[in-house]
Write a structure and sequence with these properties.
Elements: E1 4-9, H1 17-32, E2 36-41, H2 47-58, H3 64-88, E3 93-96, H4 98-101, E4 103-105, E5 114-117, H5 120-127, E6 131-135, E7 138-141, E8 145-148, H6 154-164, E9 169-174, E10 195-197, H7 198-206, H8 214-223, E11 227-231, E12 240-243, E13 256-260, E14 263-272, H9 277-287, E15 292-297, E16 306-314, H10 318-332, E17 336-340, E18 343-349, H11 357-369, E19 376-380, E20 383-389, H12 393-403, H13 411-414
Helix pairs in contact: 1-3, 2-3, 6-8, 7-8, 9-10, 11-12
Bound molecules: adenosine-5'-diphosphate, aspartic acid (ASP) and magnesium ion (MG).
């Protein structure tokens, strides 16, 4: 049996028919090495955005099932065109949608999780020496319902398929040459990382580095699928390898910086300081499926014995939050609720920052030196996040990138030295 390589091509890589032909060549190069190739494709260019806009034109709150029916068509177009492009070169290729590839998800529209992939049908086509092209982003739930995995979800389709068919490797082809220390569109002299651990990539993806869909990294870690992020256009460059931390040669203090503009801040004012109120508040939000990220509760004020509770939620959940806001107010007996949607969360991530208080101090000082006010802070073992004004997000990323010596002319320091050891 040949080794199987899974290749995933994102929207920019298949944006027009010339690019689809370019992708066909990349696939054939891998096949020429004697490997079997299974390909996952995203929709062409900005197709998914365009389809969302069409839906909005006919209905301001479209039915999630119909939205999935619509959005899933984007990937069908690119998959079949790519199969045709490969067939035009005299190669055997077949495109499969999620039902044909047997990618099963839970029955949740818009952000379904893959629960199972039955590999037999994909393997049968491989045995028939065909290049298998599978639609990313879509799945199938009970009773043949079409689901989608959430924006950027084709990465997750690719990794899940790679795990199911026991592929040697999963290559994520995109429009940049790998994973960088921050978004190269924000900091042009960001450094490309030769390798990064699953944990660091997962944390970076969760805090806004949209080069990888977070669930794809989770799945890769769970099934130990080696991942490579690389360019569709400069294929000689090997890109960035994402792998287990124990396999890494270098541990960095801070590996990357990211900004996330997808959240907004809610401040619930003057919540009576009695046991149970925070529980009531967050239970109510959970009941309505509203995810909360950062949370701060102020000290009880002496004069009226109340707290302010501030937290962040995702902008996508604002309508649902607005629906429960009045109930929350009366249930908690708070004075007011403010919403601020002009905020950004900037984060630094690195496996080597565990137990290093100097890293947090340097982050806060760097933001202060740039006159950027910190509104909230949250930390985990390998991440520190600060909430700042949206207008400061880019400056904050640039300043932090510089302060932690991540600029490309300083990459030597990134590879091992801690700022306090210089
Ligand atoms: P695709 O369509 O191939 O899935 P995406 O747009 O989802 O591509 O992801 C690639 C983009 O991710 C890049 O163009 C880049 O602007 C952005 N990005 C954000 N953070 C990073 C990072 N740390 N390293 C590389 N790219 C990043
Ligand atoms: N086409 C989908 C999107 O634009 C999925 C993907 O590209 O990964 O989000
Ligand atoms: Mg993507």
């Amino acid at each position: 049996m040949k080794n199987i390589i899974v290749q995933k091509f994102g929207g920019t890589s298949v944006a027009d028919t010339d690019k689809i032909k370019n992708v066909a060549n990349v696939i054939l190069k891998e096949k020429a090495k004697g490997n079997a190739v299974v390909v996952i494709v995203s929709a062409m260019g900005h197709t998914t955005d365009h389809l969302l806009k069409l839906a909005d034109e006919v209905n301001k709150s479209p039915n999630p099932r119909e939205l999935d029916m619509l959005l899933s068509t984007g990937e069908c177009v690119s998959a079949s065109l790519l199969a045709m492009a490969l067939q035009a070169t005299g190669n055997k290729a077949v495109s499969l949608n999620a039902a044909q590839a047997k990618i099963y998800t839970e029955k949740v529209h818009g952000s379904a999780r893959i629960v199972d992939i039955k590999p037999e049908s994909i393997l049968q086509h491989i045995n028939n020496d065909e290049i298998v092209i599978i639609t990313g982003f879509q799945g199938i739930a009970d009773e043949n319902e079409i689901t989608t995995l959430g924006r950027g979800g084709s990465d997750t389709s690719a990794v899940a398929v790679a795990a199911a068919i026991k592929a040697e490797r999963c290559d994520i082809y995109t429009d940049v040459e790998g994973v960088y220390t921050t978004d190269p569109r924000i900091v042009p002299n960001a450094s490309r990382l030769e390798e990064i651990s699953y944990d660091e990539m997962l944390e970076l993806a969760r805090v806004g580095a949209n080069v990888m869909h977070p669930r794809s990294v989770e799945t890769a870690k769970q099934y130990n699928v080696p991942l490579r992020v690389r360019s569709s256009f400069k294929t000689d460059n090997l890109g960035t390898l994402i792998l287990g931390v124990e396999e890494m040669e270098i541990r960095r203090t801070v590996t990357g910086v990211a900004a996330d503009l997808s959240q907004l801040r809610v401040v619930v004012c003057d919540v009576p300081d009695v046991p149970g109120n925070a529980g009531k508040l967050f239970e109510r939000l959970a009941d309505d499926d509203i995810s909360v990220d950062m949370i701060i509760q102020s000290y009880a004020r002496k004069h009226n014995n109340t707290n302010d509770i501030a937290f962040t939620i995702y902008k996508n959940d604002l309508d649902r939050f607005n629906n429960v806001m009045d109930e929350i107010k009366s249930e908690l007996g708070c004075s007011n609720i403010f919403i601020d949607d002009k905020i950004a969360k900037v984060s630094i991530v690195g496996a080597g920052m565990i137990d290093r208080p100097g890293i947090a101090a340097l982050m806060f000082k760097t933001l202060a030196d740039s006159d950027i006010n910190i509104r909230m802070i949250s930390t985990s073992e390998i991440k520190i996040s600060c909430l700042v004004d949206e207008a400061c997000a880019k400056d904050a990323v640039k300043a932090l990138h510089k302060a932690f010596h991540l600029d490309s002319d300083e990459i030597a320091e990134v590879k091992g030295t801690l700022p306090d050891e210089e």
